[in-house]
Backbone:
């Protein structure tokens, strides 16, 4: 009997084994939220930043009826004679082409173009802000960034059909997916989700432990979608791409990759709490996008639960993405994607602006303003009227009398006066501090490495260490490695310089990195920021003594924050 059971198990797929072992009770019908980097847990009651906050004046919000745009580039006549479907209407029909399989080799000669060549070109730009702006321009092309920000950002979807399968070449592929699995560091749940959506039921099928290739590809072969939660941890190219883009947004840039088998769908319809850029890397995927159903779902703070088809109505945009295409939709726009029967799909979703609204900023600002008002203004410390419970509260809300009027006017007066105590710049610095903790560490070019501590030739040789001394003098020319890698914050404990160079590629794997500086060094840090991208001599730092100038420059160099115009030591 035992032998028969073993033979039966041997014939079962990984999915069938999981269903049998886990049982129906462990088949999770997950609330579908925004793509998150590894390690972050979604909990509505425990926010990533701040506590309960108030509203604020937001940029003009889009009406639910905002219309999508469709950009299609001219291209040579396709080999496939079938006409292409209209991209931005509910009647658009998917176009079906030749069957493609995951892992197909990249066409010869493509290695020199696409994202690989783009990053090489960007590395030649001296200013990291310019690199970020150029990458953003490339991401949206041929739509100009100003047009995108004016017509689409937080307003309406954008579809760009490029007709260029090699546009994203080198960013990420199924071969990279397989290599990550074979590296042995991918774990179910932490880095990889195995999902399915069929007959209106969304399920997650994650076993415990390491995601081994044989198990993962068996799930895929049996119709499950694979979501890699933090491709930047396994792909140097995705890491490089996002580390540049985050400076454009001023907000964390994250990514997930999605590999879906032909003829399947991995996720239920839902909306997210992030701005989403869908980059089609391989194969094809049929997408439907729907307007927010109510004003409350326009630019939501939180992602939705799984929705049913009955919740949706007609899509405002329906299209099939092919390699090189881009689909953007704002947070709050419901979407779902499914694979055509004849092709797999691999896409990467680049996301940003999670919890980055005026309201989220006020969550930092208002508690600090109230604390300052309590400390400095007697009016905020005076006691409430002894009898206010008798005439205030919901039960008395329809009552009109002088006591209620006076109470409401007093509250309004104190709230209005609170603006005078709002430490706006300090609250911005605290937001920046959180952003720097979210950031990916910078990826260095060869020249940057040679001119920073990361390329310093200290090593063990002939029985002892050599090339150890970092010889910074008054004539050494230095600058920040990137414009966005540091932030000065005045805090109760002192002046803190937060920085990103020692962050992890995995979200919040490291604690925030900072240096506590003496207040007399703040002018020098500000001088370095304002001078970027130009090099300045150490002697020009506004410290009182040469010793302080050299000491500060050496400390920042050792932390990877400063780079020198010329390598300090030759190998």
Residues:
């Amino acid at each position: 009997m035992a032998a028969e059971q073993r033979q039966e198990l041997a014939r079962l797929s990984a999915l069938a084994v999981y269903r049998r072992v886990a049982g129906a009770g462990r088949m999770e019908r997950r609330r579908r939220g925004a793509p998150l980097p590894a390690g972050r847990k979604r909990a509505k009651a425990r926010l990533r930043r701040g506590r309960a906050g108030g509203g604020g004046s937001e940029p003009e919000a889009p009406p639910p009826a905002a219309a999508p745009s469709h950009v299609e580039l001219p291209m040579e006549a396709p080999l496939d004679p079938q006409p292409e479907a209209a991209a931005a209407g509910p009647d658009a029909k998917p176009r079906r082409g030749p069957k493609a399989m995951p892992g197909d080799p990249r066409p010869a000669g493509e290695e020199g173009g696409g994202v690989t060549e783009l990053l090489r070109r960007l590395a030649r730009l001296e200013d990291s802000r310019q690199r970020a702006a150029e990458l953003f321009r490339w991401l949206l092309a041929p739509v100009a960034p100003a047009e995108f920000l004016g017509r689409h950002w937080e307003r309406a979807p954008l579809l760009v059909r490029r007709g260029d399968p090699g546009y994203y070449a080198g960013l990420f592929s199924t071969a990279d997916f397989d290599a990550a699995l074979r590296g042995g560091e991918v774990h179910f749940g932490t880095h990889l989700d195995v999902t399915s959506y069929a007959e209106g039921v969304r399920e997650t099928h994650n076993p415990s432990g390491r995601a081994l290739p044989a198990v993962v590809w068996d799930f895929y072969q049996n119709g499950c979608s694979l979501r890699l939660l933090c491709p930047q941890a396994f792909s140097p190219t995705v890491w490089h791409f996002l580390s540049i883009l985050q400076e454009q947004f001023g907000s964390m840039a994250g990514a997930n990759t999605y590999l879906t088998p032909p003829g399947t769908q991995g996720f239920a319809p839902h909306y997210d709490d992030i701005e989403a850029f869908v980059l089609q890397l391989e194969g094809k995927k049929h997408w439907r996008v729907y307007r927010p159903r109510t004003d409350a779902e326009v630019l939501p703070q939180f992602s939705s639960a799984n929705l049913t088809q009955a919740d949706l109505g007609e899509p405002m945009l329906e299209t099939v993405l092919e390699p090189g295409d881009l689909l953007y939709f704002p947070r709050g726009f419901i979407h779902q994607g499914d694979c055509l029967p004849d092709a797999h799909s691999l896409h990467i979703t680049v996301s940003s602006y999670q919890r980055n609204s005026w309201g989220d900023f006020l969550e930092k600002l208002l508690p600090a303003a109230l604390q300052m008002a309590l400390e400095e203004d007697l009016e905020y410390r005076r006691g409430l009227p002894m009898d206010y419970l008798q005439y205030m509260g919901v039960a008395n809300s329809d009552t009109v009398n002088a006591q209620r009027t006076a109470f409401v006017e007093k509250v309004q007066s104190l709230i209005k006066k609170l603006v005078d105590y709002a430490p706006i710049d300090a609250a911005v610095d605290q937001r920046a501090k959180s952003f720097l903790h979210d950031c990916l560490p910078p990826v260095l070019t060869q020249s940057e490495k040679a001119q920073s501590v990361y390329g310093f030739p200290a090593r063990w040789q002939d029985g002892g260490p050599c090339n150890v001394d970092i010889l910074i003098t008054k004539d050494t020319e230095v600058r920040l490695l990137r414009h966005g890698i540091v932030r000065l914050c005045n805090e109760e404990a002192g002046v803190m310089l937060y920085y990103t160079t020692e962050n992890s590629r995995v979200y919040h794997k490291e604690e925030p990195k900072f240096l506590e500086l003496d207040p007399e060094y703040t002018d020098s840090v500000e001088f370095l920021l304002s001078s970027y991208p130009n090099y300045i001599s150490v002697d020009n730092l506004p410290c009182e003594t040469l010793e302080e100038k050299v000491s500060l420059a050496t400390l920042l160099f050792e932390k990877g924050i400063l780079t020198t115009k010329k390598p300090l030591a030759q190998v």
Remarks:
- The CA atoms of residues 481 and 524 lie 15 Å apart.
- The chain has 15 helices and 20 strands.
- The radius of gyration is 27 Å.
- Residues 24-65, 75-112 have pLDDT under 50 and may be disordered.
